[in-house]
Each structure stands twice: as C-alpha cells, then as structure tokens.
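batch_manifest entry 22 of 60
target: Heme chaperone HemW
source organism: Kiritimatiella glycovorans
requested by: lab member K.T.
priority: normal
notes from requester: please return tokens only, no post-processing; we will run our own comparison against the previous entry in this batch. if the run fails, retry once and flag.
--- input ---
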Amino acid sequence: MPGLYIHIPFCLRKCPYCDFYSIPLRDGRIADRYLNALGRELRLLAAEFRPATVYVGGGTPTALEPEQLRRLFRMLHEHAGAADAEEVTCEANPGTMERETLDALLESGVNRISVGVQSFCNAALKKLGRVHSAEQAWEACRRARSAGFGNMSIDLIGAVPGVRRRDLRETVDRVLDLRPEHISFYLLSFEEGTLFHRLRERGAIAECEEEEQVRRFDYVRGKLRRTGYRHYEISNFAVPGFESRHNLLYWDGEAYAGCGAAAHSFLQGERRANVRDLETYLRRLEEGAAPVAESDVIRPEARARELLVMGLRKIGGVERETFRETTGYDYWSLCGPEITDLARRNLLEVDRERIRLTGEALLISDTVFAELI
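--- output ---
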C-alpha cells in the first residue's frame, strides 16, 4: 500500500537553516483558502487510493488552529481513506503545541507526533532562529505525553556553530529523560537558498570543523545505542518496533502520493512535483487545474539506481536477492566497478548477501551515493 504526504507550508517564522517550502502565517484566512485547495487536490486521487501511512509535514502543521486541523483530517478521511492508515504522523513545533491543538490531533486519529525540538540549549535555539525556549520545548513534550501520545519522535540538530559539545550532551540527556520512541539527529547543513547559506558565503558564519562534526555524531550515536535505541537509518534511531513506517516506505522504494504546495509523488513509475509557490498552487486548483509543476517517467535502470541509493540509507543496507526481485537488476551488473572501488576505500561493506555503508561513510553518504547514481 502507498503512503500519503501532506504539506502544510505555514510556520510562525522561517528558520534560517530551513530549505523546505514554508512561509510565515500572517492571516488565518489564507490557511482556510489553502485547505479548500488541498481538498480539491485530494479529490484528484484515484478512487481506490488507500494509504498505509499518512505524514503531515511542513512548515509547521500545528500553526493551524485546532478547528482547521480537525477539518484537514476530516478531508483526509473522506477523500483519501486516511482513517484506515496504520501510522498517522503530524509534525509539531513546541511553540504551537497547546493542549487544545494536541487534543484535536488525537481526536482526528493522529497516532504519532514528531516534535521539532532541535535542542534543549537556549543558545543553540537562538542561533537556529527557533521561536521556543528550552523550557517550552520540555513542557510541550510532557504535554504531548499527558495528552495521550504514546508514539513521539523528537528532532535534534547538532554541530550548531558556537554551541559547545557539553550543551549537546546535556540536550541528549534531557531527551532521554523524556524517553521518546523515536529520535532523529541531524548535523546542521547549509542548504543553498537559506539565510545560513548566504551568511556562510559572506563569511558571517562558519560550520563546525569536520572532525568536530564526526565526534558529535559518534557521541550521539553511541549514547542512543547504549540506551536501547536502534540505529536504523543514517539520521534515525528508534525503540525497536517504533521505526517510522512512512519514512521506511520511501527508503524501500514504495509508492507515495504528495498533496500540497511543493509536495512530491511517486506513483505507477511516474514522479511528480507540485508548484513551489502558494499563490500559484491556490490559483491552479481554484481554476480546476492540477498543481503539478513537472512530471517524469523514470526508466527502469534509473529507478534501480535510485532504489540502491535509498536502500543504502538504512543501516542494514541492501540485500542482493531482494534488490534483484524488486528491480530486475543485480547491483553488481548495474554498478560493480563503483561498488568495488567504494569497498576498497572503506566506504562500503560488502558480503555475498548484501552491501551497506561503513560507519566511516555515514557522514559522507552523499559522496557515496553520487558515485552509484
């Protein structure tokens, strides 16, 4: 069964490191107009479409009012069969997690919440441009627990310039006190088009040294593994049984539909991308047109290479026989010389049954993937 991603492009304030499509929500009326358009797009899905997983991301979905959230999920139930999904995730930020909002999510069938804490260090939060404090983040997570969320994921960002290693250790300790079922840990990246990227280009901000990034990643990875979390994807850790089913669907190459401005889909061998502009998205759907900006039918060999790269994001790597059955290709015939060279450089671990990234390759995975794609 496919997955369904819903993009809510609104947030309270654009973070300087964020390269996802989002805009500050100034007026609730634009959110109502967006939900109208989203409802029209959902009705374009095939009548038989039924998702195994639903993921509502952004932006900040919880920037919407509680009644707007209820309306959103009513539409998902009516037009996409979301009530039958096994996993329904909604992203939330601590500054927008009032009890009424959490109750609206639970009443609407959300059974997994992903909280964008990023840090429990106020200096790091200020540097990252977050609107919440460390104490607000702590209280928001506790509020989600008391409201009834039994499956909570927490996002963390490490290697923030000017923030000490000790602060990261304290953040990890506080996260472990909350004992979330899932933790995503990312090293800060400076993506083109973001304020942080522009500041770095002007010399106004600098990334942490590579060796320091490695030390911080290794520390977090080791700490989480010692405390019962399974490292199952480059940036993701879970209590066994609480891995993100929706994200595993991506990494396993399954089909998914994406609705909303800037959302992407992969259905029946075709990749589609929606327009990355709110007004254009609204206008197209209000005029009865599809919001697709571009589409591309993926050739079998290109798709096989994509699946190889996506599968290598998982710590368990790619099993040779499963890959052959799924794609019709043997990865040795597809890119044998590249695999051999990467193994020689200690970036791939190779045996008869599977290939996987080495520990050394986890932080330079994009370099490995570029050679395989």
